Amino acid sequence: MAAAQRGDAEAYARLLRACVPLIKSIARGRGLAPDRADDVVQDVLLTIHRARAAYDPGRPFDAWLRVIAERRAIDHLRRYRRQQDREVHAPLALETHADQGASPDRDLDRQADARRVGDAIAVLPNRQREAVHLLMIEERSLTETAAATGRSTGSLKVNLHRALKALRTRLSGGS
Length: 175
Fold this sequence. Notes:
This protein is mostly helical. It contains 9 helices and no strands.
């Protein structure tokens, strides 16, 4: 690593190749599957590349590498567990689940809802209607909308807030 820090590209390439078995061993020791261990290897190699200037040549390289590999393996385990908590793997459930989007009644309901929202937007004051249209429907940014309308971002925020409040009231059955 000291030679790599001095700019020896060949030494750096040899070092990275020599690190791979140790990194895989640490990742597998943490219980990661082989494909996930490969992800850890890539992550550790990138970390080494980014942090190589911070390595102190007076200290053992193996210990430095082990700490990085352990931390990256733990990061991958945490990420994997969070993903598993959010996702459900049930392929048979998808095959037996009816397509809710295929209902003609649902399409009619969506059309009716779209008409209600369109009618509610149409009765808004001009500035509020313009703010809703540009910011919400066309999904333009505040700065882009401000430039297009000649209004400040603060003014657009106020108009949008008031418009959304009026739409909530109107669509929830209020006046």
